[in-house]
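Entry 12.
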Amino acid sequence: MLRKFFRKYLPSNESIRQNRHIARFGTLLLHPNLWHLNRRSVSGGVAAGLFAGLVPGSNPVQFAVAALLAVAFRVNLPVALVVTLYTNPLTIVPLYLLAYEYGKLLVGGDASFTPEPEFDWSHLSHWLEVWLAWLLSLGKPLAVGLIALALTLAAAGYALVQIAWRAHVVLAWRRRRRRRATNDSR
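Predicted 3D structure (tokens):
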């Protein structure tokens, strides 16, 4: 059902081949899995999007990383791009705090998250030094945590889509079998 819905909005193979923007990349963007909706391609696109969503930077940077991952692993490109949007101004702070705590758990140590130093106009140079020290204190746990959380979310997203897709197919088979059995009994 969802597959048929999304298929209406995805471009056809012919329109992809004739698009002048895609033609610039030659055959790089013409692999069928980049545009088709199948279990492997969609679950890989979700994984690529979840991983790229935690790349530091704005949406264009995350889109570029998602596109590179989708092309490299030959997974659904539109799905990878759309999934990166889970990081937005409302979710980025909790995700980074979670990544910091995750990284702290992996790296070890007893450092606790200290709040950002308050801005002080009167002592701007001193505030800048304190702020830079605070930022560097977050560095290793945050960097390790971002990578670990991105890998965890990508693996979980891949597995969940695989399981949900398989469950949907099995339920559709069962419904079809029941419908055929009731039609044959008439």
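Annotation: The mean pLDDT is 83. The helical segments are 2-9, 13-18, 20-23, 39-53, 59-73, 77-83, 92-107, 124-185.
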